[in-house]
Design a protein that fits this description.
mainly alpha; single chain; 2 domains; 4 strands
Length: about 425
């Protein structure tokens, strides 16, 4: 049996079949009859015996985690490596011991870390030649989970891991809640103004306390709440569709914390970028967060092109790029179109571009770190430091630059 840990270190148990024939096989099976399988998952089917001379499956029952806490003591793993009868190269054994001893917490976990449990799971999956698409007899929800796995994850190992450990609770509620609020706000203003497109031409719309306006930049909440307002039905429909089609699957796979962080980082970066580069323009729409999600997903697909198994991926990639470019073009046209005298400058398009930058940087790292700890990656801290530097710079810019540069801001509505 092959076992592969997360760092690619592999070893195998004593061979079950050799040139000595069935007697050697029986001897091998007898020798391992007292051994027990590591961390057997109850929802995984028991593997059939690799030896036809055995009457029962070769199942190990060793409980390194008897209370199912998700943690295994490092000393137990060390003892396993020392006493388990495995044919290990000395160099690989030394590397395994170094990996275990480098753990400062004294225990290894399955929760977003380089885990011994996941190493065992990877080893089990390497034995299963069939791919996840060959699973039969699945219910509607499990088929949807399998679809999401192939849409989001580039590695068959990660797909099987996600498929088997997925639970509906907690559900992907963040993107759903954001989308519902955006729709409700749009319906309220549409009914109040009796206008469903180009609402930014209406003065009452721009008076909303949710819209970011440079004249109201001291009201900090506007740097976030502008994501609930939209120019019209065309922008809302585009954003809501992408949030549900891409945001929800991403949230199912990577969790609410990571995807909400990515989305809100795109939203905040959008308003801050506009306050620096387009100082007279307001901002509306959730495009900063949407473009952060979409850019991260598309970049992840490109970086793992060979591993992605989603159908028609080239056609879908082209279609996504055309749609995103068209939305940016619409925003550019609206920004530089002659405004009505009473409406003032139209919303900026820079939030789209800054959201894409957030997605390609922070978002790509998040999506490539499925079930891995971000805090242990140097690139994660470099990205956080870069965003913190930009955030501090934007604060000072908004406090001092408008007066120093003599920017004439249109009077806020």
């Amino acid at each position: 049996m092959h076992m592969i840990n997360k760092d690619g270190i592999g070893f195998r148990s004593p061979p079950l079949h050799g040139e000595a024939g069935s007697s050697a096989c029986m001897s091998s099976c007898s020798a391992r009859s007292g051994q027990q399988r590591l961390l057997q998952q109850p929802h995984w089917p028991a593997e059939e015996s690799e030896c036809p001379a055995c009457e029962s499956p070769a199942v190990y029952e060793l409980e390194l985690d008897p209370e199912n806490t998700g943690f295994i003591a490092v000393e137990n793993i060390s003892s396993l490596l020392e006493h388990h009868e495995l044919q290990l190269d000395p160099s690989k054994l030394e590397m395994l011991f170094a990996l275990v001893q480098s753990n400062e917490e004294g225990q290894m976990s399955s929760k977003r870390s380089s885990s011994f449990r996941r190493a065992i799971a990877n080893g089990r999956r390497s034995l299963q030649r069939e791919i996840l698409l060959d699973e039969t007899g699945l219910g509607l929800y499990k088929r949807f989970v399998r679809y999401v796995a192939y849409e989001i994850l580039p590695c068959e190992t990660d797909r099987r891991w996600y498929f088997h450990q997925n639970r509906f609770c907690p559900p992907p509620i963040f993107m759903a809640i954001i989308t519902v609020i955006q729709i409700l706000v749009f319906l309220c203003y549409g009914a109040m103004l009796n206008k469903w497109v180009l609402q930014t031409y209406q003065l009452d719309f721009m008076k909303s306390p949710l819209v970011y306006h440079p004249g109201h930049r001291a009201q900090v909440w506007r740097f976030f709440t502008y994501m609930f307002m939209h120019v019209g039905l065309e922008q809302l429909g585009f954003n809501a569709l992408l949030q549900l089609m891409i945001g929800v699957p991403l949230e199912m796979v990577h969790g609410i914390l990571r995807i909400s962080l990515l989305y809100m980082a795109g939203v905040l970066a959008g308003s801050l970028t506009v306050s620096i580069t387009d100082m007279r323009a307001p901002v509306v729409g959730g495009s900063g967060g949407v473009y952060a999600l979409c850019s991260a997903h598309l970049a992840n697909v490109v970086m793992n092109w060979a591993g992605m198994r989603c159908p028609y991926k080239l056609l879908r990639m082209i279609l996504a790029l055309v749609c995103m470019s068209s939305e940016v073009g619409r925003a550019v046209w609206l920004r530089f179109s002659p405004p009505l005298p009473s409406s003032g400058p139209q919303p900026s398009f820079m939030a789209h571009l800054s959201g894409a930058v957030v997605g390609i940087s922070m978002g790509l790292l998040i999506l490539r770190s499925y079930e891995e700890s971000l805090q242990r990656q140097c690139s994660w801290w470099v990205i956080l430091l870069s965003f913190a530097t930009f955030f501090v710079f934007a604060i000072f810019w908004n406090i001092f630059a408008y007066d120093l540069l003599g920017v004439q801001i249109p009077p806020p509505p």
